[in-house]
Amino acid sequence: MQEFAKIRTQKIYEQIADQLQARIEAGGWRSGDKLPSTKELSEQFQVGRSTMREALSALKAKGLIEIRQGEGCFVRELSPAELELPGLLLPGKESVLELLEARKALEIANAAIAAVKHTDTDLKAFEELLGSMKAHIGDEAEGEAADIRFHQLLAAATHNSIMVRLLESISSQMETAIRETRRLQMYSNAEVSHRLWDEHQAIYNAVAARDAAGAERAMRSHLDHVEQVLRAYIEG
What we know:
The chain is mostly helical and 236 residues long. The protein has helices at 12-25, 38-45, 49-61, 80-84, 93-117, 120-135, 140-156, 161-185, 190-208, 212-235, and strands at 65-68, 72-75. A hairpin with a 3-residue loop joins strand 1 (65-68) and strand 2. Helix 2 (38-45) crosses helix 3 (49-61), helix 5 runs parallel beside helix 9 (190-208) and helix 9 (190-208) runs antiparallel to helix 10. The longest helix has 25 residues, at 93-117. The radius of gyration is 19 Å and the shape is elongated.
């Protein structure tokens, strides 16, 4: 007998994001168009502004819009690199797992290259960020932002613009799934938050010591942990 797929309850912000995405894909809003304000959209959907911000963040994570501080939300024009990646706007289980696999390969390489090519300026930026990460353990929003920033700094420390652009293309598609997972499993849990900080510190230590093999091992261990949590979430 054929098995049925599990039914996953869709949150309100996800339903709103789906409707907004459908309008963008249908041409209701084109590249460069400004979306109505959060206040206007909240009133149209009759939801709170926090829910609307979640929906807009989901669209940003999919690479559909950009949020400009003080200006509003605008429909993005996808770059050639993003258009070439398959299934970018289809954040299903298989797409997420494929992106995670690609991210692991890229970031392990980034760690090794950064261990060889980093500068003192790179190390200073890492040290400042790790200090901030440790000070904000338990703060979900700060933990999420700092985690993303760490991996951006690592890519920058390769001093290879192609690596930076590849990470941006992959990461923008991973953000929605990883953000949800962090809130459920990671940065809301102090014990796990401490472990994640330790993992980032281990990556930094190997990079600072110019230990390329050690940086690869530390990054692999960290991403294996993230993958374990993410798989449990999307397959649960």
